[in-house]
Amino acid sequence: MASILICDDSAFTRNMIKDILKMEGHQFLDAKDGNVLLNIVKDEKFDCILLDLLMPHKDGFQVLAELKEMGNKVPVIVVSADIQESSRQRCIELGAAAFLNKPPKQADLINTINNAIR
């Protein structure tokens, strides 16, 4: 069982991911934007972070950059509808452990989380 922080501005996507995580027995907390995520990670520890790219206030790229500056060691999996190779590459350069297309398939999401937290 892992502790996972889900960050996505879409309540529908957060709920879909929460349903998958519940079935796997994982614990989770969710954030509706990058500012909320950054406030949460200052106070709480997680095994993994699931991060959307396109969000208001602070997008996923800004969050990845700030997490990197903070010395974050928690694996971040980007879950995004942005399928451009340049976006994937930028995420990896900013420290993302993996990149999944949205909506993620259940098996892909679980396998990627398991690989990231090993």
Descriptive notes:
With 118 residues, this protein is α/β, with parallel strands linked by helices. It has a single domain (3-117), classed as Response regulator (Rossmann fold, 3-Layer(aba) Sandwich), CATH 3.40.50. The protein has helices spanning 11-24, 34-43, 60-69, 85-93, 106-117, and strands at 3-7, 27-31, 48-51, 76-80, 98-101. The protein has a five-stranded parallel sheet with strand order 2-1-3-4-5, with helices on both faces. Helix 2 (34-43) packs parallel to helix 3. The termini are close together.
Brief digest:
The chain is built from five helices and five strands. The chain is an alpha/beta fold and 118 residues long. It has a single domain, classed as Rossmann fold (3-Layer(aba) Sandwich).
